[in-house]
Every structure is written in C-alpha cells, then in structure tokens.
Amino acid sequence: GAVVSQHPSWVICKSGTSVKIECRSLDFQATTMFWYRQFPKQSLMLMATSNEGSKATYEQGVEKDKFLINHASLTLSTLTVTSAHPEDSSFYICSARNGRRVEQPQHFGDGTRLSIL
Amino acid sequence: RKEVEQDPGPFNVPEGATVAFNCTYSNSASQSFFWYRQDCRKEPKLLMSVYSSGNEDGRFTAQLNRASQYISLLIRDSKLSDSATYLCAVNPYYGNNRLAFGKGNQVVVIP
C-alpha cells in the first residue's frame, strides 16, 4: 500500500528555534501533499495544501511566513515552523495523494510531535 | 454549523458485539467520503472510502445517506484490536480539493 514517511517523529526544542519536518512518499508520486495539526482530543486541522512545483495554499488563520512549506519534488514536502513558541506545540501530520482529485484517498505520514519549551 | 460532526463517545462495546456510529456533514454538495482509523498518538490510517451504494470490507460496512447528510460505519463481531478512534472525512463542497475531518468516534472494545 501507499507509504508516507515523516521525519522526525519527536522534536523538543527551545522557544525561538526553527524546526523543519520532512514528508516523503516512498512508493508513489505525491502530486498533492497536505499539512495538518492536531491538538489532543481535537480533529485534524488542515494548515495548507501544496501541489508539486506550486506555492502552498494556506487555510485561513495560518501564517504563511511562520509555517513555510516547500514541495519541490513529487516525493518530498517540508514544513518549517519558524521561531517556534510553546503555543506551536502540537502533533503535525502530513498526508500525500497521488493526483489532484479529492476522491483519491490521502495517506498519512507517521506524524511529528513538536514540544517547544 | 461545523462541516463535519461526530459524537466522540466513547462507544464501549463488548467483544463480539456490533457497533455502529454516524458522521454528519453540513454541505449537501459534498462528493467524497472516507473513514479513517486513528490509534492513540498515531497517524490516521485509511479504513475505507464510502461509495453511494455503500461498501463492505470484511467486518466493516460503510453507508452514505445523502438525504439526511450522514455516513455510517458498522463494525460486526468486534475485536479487541478494533479499539481506536474512527475519523470521518468529507470534502466540504464540490470542486474543493481538501477534506474536512471530524473529531472521531472513540470505540473501546471490552473483553
């Protein structure tokens, strides 16, 4: 089945640090990738959608200068949380889809637990 | 009204019993529907897509009720390993590229 790898799994760092998270599709071409954030006992909140070779589309309320997304190839997207603060602590999950049609399912990476001290 | 709503539960189910739960969506023009399973502190994993005619995969049956705007998931002969949170995902409106997720239905299968 479709495999999506996300790295790192855990990050603990000081306030003010920038953190980069990688999302790779291992056995398919990810035309579209999504970045989500999930707080405990809450639903997945979409942060942004990125299509390979294009600028990411951010959801309302998500600061594009704080959450930098790069989708430079069909197998890799990165999310950089710049100058992270404690309120950015959350579970960040990427998903990838082979194609741009919404009826094609998304496959999720393992997620990254980010803790900012 | 939220795009997707689920009763978080928990749904406590005796092992071997059947459990069913629904997910309601707000936009009648939504076209794509999915059920995902999420274990505690893990990523969601695709369980099944939901088709207009309904679909079945082993002990799992998913159905779509467009008139009442909900999808359902039924689990027969529950196993301890079925304990998880089941997330529904819906594309919020026609032509939109993204999915909206519910908070999930938490299922606890009791020995």
The stretches of 5 or more residues of chain B where confidence is low (pLDDT under 50) are none
Largest sheet geometry of chain B: 6 strands, mixed
Contiguous uncertain segments of 5+ residues of chain A? none
List how many beta strands of chain A DSSP finds. Answer: 11
In percent terms, what proportion of residues of chain A is strand? Answer: over 45%
Per DSSP E runs of 2 or more residues, the count of β-strands of chain B stands at: 11
Mean pLDDT of chain B: 92
Assembly form of the protein: heterodimer
| H-E order of chain A | EEEEEEEEEEE
Biggest chain pair interface: A-B, 23 and 25 residues
The main pleated sheet of chain A reads as: 7 strands, mixed
Series of secondary-structure elements of chain B, N-terminal to C-terminal: EEEEEEEEEEE
Derived from helix and strand composition plus strand pairing, the structural class of chain B reads mainly beta
Sheet-strand content of chain B, in percent, reads over 45%
Shape of chain A: globular
**Number of helical stretches of at least 4 residues of chain B:** 0
Q: Determine the fraction of residues in helical runs of chain A and give it as a percent range.
A: under 10%
Radius of gyration of chain B: 13 Å
pLDDT average of chain A, as an integer? 91
Distance between the termini of chain B: 37 Å
Radius of gyration of chain A (Å):
13 Å
